Sequence to fold (452 residues):
Amino acid sequence: MRPAGPLFHGFAVVSVSAWLLLAAGWLLLRGRLPARPLLLVGRAMLRRRHRAVLADLQPELGRCFVARVGAGVPSDADIGSRLVVLEDGVPLPHAHAAHDDIRRLGGGRYSHWGDNVYFATRDDSDPRTNGRRYTVEER
Amino acid sequence: MSSGAASPDHVVGPHPLLPLLRCPACGGELRRDEDVLRCDCGAGHPIVRGVPRFVPDDAYVGSFSFEWNTHDRTQLDSARGDTMSRDTLHEKTGLDAAQLRGRLVLDAGAGTGRFSEVMADMGARVVGVDLSLAVEAAHRNLRHRGDVLIAQADIGRLPFGPETFDVIVSIGVLHHTPDTRRHFEALVPLLKRGGTIAIWVYPDEGDYRIRNQWIPWTNKIPPRLFYEWCRWFVPFLHRRRGSRLQGLAARLFPYSQQGYGLENDILDVFDGYSPRYHGIHSPAEVIGWFEAAGLVDVREAGPVRTSVRGRRP
Fold:
């Protein structure tokens, strides 16, 4: 197949995008597409970036601890998280980690999933007793 | 890669698997009369550009004709130099070389012949059929092989006698027919007693459900236009991986990020949204079809949902 010319390519991008936006509107109105991702993005654009100190840290499994972040901050369970976990102000090294890796491997891996952040400290110490401060920041 | 009993442009010469073909109208044997396979019932089935044809056109699968002749080698292991199709075959059917070596296999919905090639490399003799003009791509890819025969035919009306095949596989195809179950049932009589049939169809869950909502809109777009849009859309989102826009798009318009390269993802987005029919089914439903068809040892074939296999007693 010959590659399309720029004119046809531009026409395809504009016309198909317009058609699909129309379809998306219809499907959202009819409740056939999940509206939550769109609401989360809308809210995220309107509010300040989330910053908080992680409190009430609970051991989960293995090297993993869990803390509540709060509802309404988009996570990897929704449209993707932009939350960074900081240990004494320094970002932990591995975001979007698989939960099993956090539990088994630790080493500063973390995941923002639903309303919680699952994380392991950089040296796999217990964050409740190691004297460091854990915060989250949306970037 | 083994090339089997190679004979250049095999259908021009006598292909060793050609005698398997039967008249879909009456089941009679076919004899070759130059570029036509003729039956005593009067039916004639042409051989066009090296491929026996048992349908007058590509019916409702024009989008597949387009995509597989555009991406005729994108998913072919021999062209990619990896084991993408071999791995997919195993994940979705549980079949391996030990179960395929020396067997006569029907690849129902062969596309460009990616799984036919893999199975033939494992030592099987394979007949690949497809309703779309993908058969021309498959023929180009596999015509040097004497252990693979490609034909254009409708799965609901295949040109084979009963109890012909040791193994039948159909991966990602039956849900693109007007009636998934009926087309599955049409395959079962072609299986020998003791033979294995393995299929994978779209599961009724997650991204497939969302895609199902889009299909009535996306399959109205002319294929060439939609394909050109896919060539813009997929790289656009790949460049924005991790952004809110990409996250939002992935939830509302699930798109392919398979990790087999950009061209494969573009192909897969087009493939997922352009077909006329897009059936989705639960594993229990599919297992029920197998059991109702009298198959035994029915089980989920691998880790992929709605991949089911069974044996004809």
About this structure: Confidence is low (pLDDT under 50) at residues 1-12 of chain B. Chain B touches chain A at residues 69-70, 210, 213-214, 217-218, 221, 224-226, 228-229, 231-232, 242-244, 246-248, 250-253 (CB under 8 Å). Residues 18-203+281-311 of chain B form a domain with the Rossmann fold fold (CATH 3.40.50.150).
